[in-house]
Specification:
Layout (H helix, E strand, L loop, with lengths): L3 E10 L7 E9 L5 E18 L4 E10 L3 E8 L5 E4 L4 E7 L4 E15 L5 E7 L4 E5 L8 E8 L3 E5 L6 E8 L3 E5 L8 E7 L3 E7 L3 E6 L6 E4 L2 E5 L2 E4 L8 E8 L3 E7 L1
Parallel strand pairs: 1-3, 3-7, 3-8, 8-9, 8-10, 9-11, 10-12, 11-13, 12-14, 13-15, 14-16, 15-21, 16-22, 17-21, 18-22
Antiparallel strand pairs: 1-5, 2-4, 4-7, 5-6, 17-20, 19-20
């Protein structure tokens, strides 16, 4: 029977005028778990996440916080005894384990996120960015297969880098009033499908020239679709010029309101 650890990190805002800054460590030891479910709710502040090769810990963190300003709560399920820790903070630097498959459900409110998933074994990723400015990085090939990667942007700005390294089957991206950049650099190991939904915001998709792309999109006079290097093969369906010769393909469906989408080619 697999040992699965479910970890929830919640960051709650409370009112205070205190400004004393404190920095401390908070670590979670590894106790033989085979899977990890991570849920992070971050209301206000700065969140930095990266991988850790230290096999003694599931999570290591350095916390800088203003007393009485934030109150995050960490809850662990899946062990013989649940543990709960309350810490007040507004800036977390988190290093997550590389050694076990993990799912991530991250919800950011207002602030900044730097999420480097390089070397982390991810099987699912759901990211809600709210009003935050977020950078998501996959600089190394993911050793697990992501079933669906979901990115939702509110009024903030999101940049996702190295998406071909994610080893995902499909992606769903929603952009409200903010901006989103999707960069598919990296090693694409199989064809992928995705859906991009745009309200009033803007989405830029950057794709290496070695990959072929199909775009299915219905334009209107209220929206802006900019596809360079494509030809229309059917009504509202476009293929890149390298469609017949490329070894890997990306299928994208675009649903757009008053916003814009740009497809750019990169080396």
């Amino acid at each position: 029977m697999k040992r699965v650890l479910v970890m929830c990190l919640c960051f709650f805002t409370i009112l205070s005028l205190a400004e004393e800054q404190v920095t401390e460590q908070h670590d979670i030891p590894y106790k033989g778990e085979e899977e990890l479910d991570v849920s992070i709710e971050f209301g206000l502040g700065k969140l930095e996440l990266r991988s850790s090769s230290n096999q003694k810990f599931i999570m290591q963190s350095e916390i800088t916080y203003t007393k009485e300003l934030y109150k995050p709560k960490i809850e662990l399920w899946g062990r013989s005894k649940n543990s709960e820790t309350d810490i007040k903070n507004n800036h977390w630097r988190i290093a997550m384990t590389e050694q076990i498959p993990s799912t991530y459900d991250i919800e950011l409110g207002l602030g900044k996120g730097i999420l480097d998933f390089s070397n982390i074994k991810i099987s699912d990723l759901n990211l809600e960015c709210g009003l935050s400015d977020v950078v998501v990085e996959f600089n190394e090939a993911n050793k697990e297969r992501i079933r669906t990667m979901v990115i939702q942007t509110g009024l903030g700005n999101v940049e996702a880098i190295g998406l071909s390294n994610t080893n995902m089957d499909r992606f769903d991206v929603e952009c409200g009033l903010g901006s989103t950049k999707l960069r598919f650099d990296g090693d694409l190991r199989h064809d992928i499908k995705g859906n991009i939904t745009i309200g009033l915001g803007s989405v830029t998709v950057e794709i290496p020239k070695k990959y072929a792309v199909q775009i299915e999109a219905e334009s209107s006079f209220l929206s802006s679709l900019n596809f360079d290097g494509f030809r229309e093969v059917e009504e509202d369906i476009y293929h890149s010029k390298n469609w017949k010769n490329a070894e890997r393909r990306i299928y994208i469906t675009v649903e757009i309101g008053l916003g814009s989408v740009d497809i750019d080619w990169i080396d």
